[in-house]
Structure formats: structure tokens, C-alpha cells
Amino acid sequence: MANPKHTAQSQDETNGLGEDAVSSESETIDIEALAKEFAASDDLDAGGDLAGASEELETEIAGLKAERDEMRERWMRAMAEAENARKRGERDRREGEQYGGSKLARDLLPVYDNLKRALDAANPEASDKALIEGVELTMRELVNIFAKHSITKISPEKGEAFDPQMHQAMFEAPVPGTKAGDIIEVMTEGFLLHDRLLRPAQVGVSSTPAG
User: Fold this and answer.
1) Which H or E element spans position 20?
2) d(CA 30, CA 37)
3) Residues 68, 105: one domain?
4) 181 — phi, psi (to 5°)?
5) Could you give the maximum distance between any two Cα atoms of the chain, in Å?
């Protein structure tokens, strides 16, 4: 027969072990929950750090792209300015070659006019033929020089229509058999240097009314 005291003591010891076991299990559950909480906290911190790093990287990339675009725009602008400068230089060089002597050519036109007047007024029978031949030779040489440098004459004929782009009206007069705007007299010839007007032809223009 069992000893009641021993049985009671055993029961108490069993109850004590049970309480200890329950207490230990409770402490284990609390530790695991705390560990999970810390783990979740670490994950959140890590995710926040990654998110922050990602935003910083995106900001830096955006800045680099903006800087690249700005540098590209500056480069394209510099290239365009260099090309424009090259074209301007080429145009100035070409114009210098073609029209650089325009002042000298314009100063030579009165020489041509005077030689032409001398030949028009010369009378071969009454004048020295050698002198006339010398003037003619000088005139031919001057005309050849003009042609060499692309200086061409504007020689309108009587009856042609007046062209304000090429002719300068020195006077107007009514002339029978003509109509208003017809050239009735050529006083001096005009000249072009390439396609640029050196001097318009000076002419008289009819003012005869239509009818």
C-alpha cells in the first residue's frame, strides 16, 4: 500500500515540474516571437536601405543623363556654329575673288567712256590714222581686260523697253513713232561684274503717250 505522504509529495513534485515546463514553454514562445519581431525589423531596415539606395542611384542616373543631354546640345550647337562660320568664310572668299576688284573696275569705266567718245568723234580723213589706230588698240586691250575679269557691257538699243534694273533714265521726251518707256537714246553703256551691276546704262526714255 502506497504511502499517502509519498504520493502527495510525488504529486506536488509532478505539479512543480509541470509548472516549470509550462513556464519554460512560455519563455520559449516569447523568445521565438521576439526573434521573429527582430528578424522582421531587420528585413524592414534592409528594405528601407535598399529603397533609399535605389532612389539615390536613380537620382544620380537622372543627373548624368541631364548632363549628357546638355553636353550633346552644346556639342551640336558648336558644330552648327563651326559649319556656319565655314560657309560664311567660303562665301566671303568667293565674293572676294569675284567682286574684290569692283572699285578698280568702276574707276576704269570713265577711261572706257573717254576712249569710246574719242573714236566716235574721230574723222579718219582729217585725223592722224596712226593716232586713231593707237586709240583703237587701247580700247581693244581694255575690253579684253574687262572680259578676262568677267566685266560685261550693257548696251541697249534704241526702241528697247526701259529696264529699271539695268538702265538709268537721264531724261524723258516725246518722240514720234515710239511709245512711253521705249529707249530713245543711249548716252553711256552700263557694265556688270559677273552678275553684279557696276553701272547702269544711262539712257533717254520716250514719254509719248499711248494712243
Assistant:
1) helix 4-99
2) 10
3) no
4) 100, -5
5) 186
190 CB-contact burial (10 Å; exposed 0-12 / middle 13-18 / buried 19+): buried
Whether residue 91 sits in one domain with residue 112 = no
Instruction: Please report which confidence band the pLDDT of residue 47 belongs to, taking 50, 70 and 90 as the band edges.
Output: low
The grid coordinates listed for 69 are 543631354
What is the CATH number for 165? 2.30.22.10
| Phi, psi dihedral angles at 207 (to 5 degrees) | -115, 20
Sequence-ordered alpha helix ranges (H) in 100-192 = 102-121, 129-148
- The DSSP bridge pattern shows strands 167-173 and 201-206 to be parallel
Of all residues in the chain, the percent with pLDDT exceeding 90 is: 46
Among candidate residues 74, 99, 124, the one where a domain is terminated: 99
153: cell is: 557691257
CA–CA gap between residue 122 and residue 187 (Å, rounded): 18
Provide the 10 A C-beta neighbour count for residue 169: 15
What type of residue is 200?
Answer: P
Q: What CA–CA distance (Å, rounded) separates 194 from 205?
A: 27
Residue 23 clears pLDDT 50, i.e. is over it:
no
CA 198 to each of CA 3, 39, 104, 185: distance values in angstroms, whole numbers, following the listed order: 148, 95, 11, 20
Most confident stretch, 42-46, 92-96, 191-195? 191-195
Cell of 106: 568702276
Q: Could you tell me the CA-to-CA distances from 74 to 58, 71, 80, 97 in Å, in that order?
A: 24, 5, 10, 34
Q: What is the pTM of this model?
A: 0.58
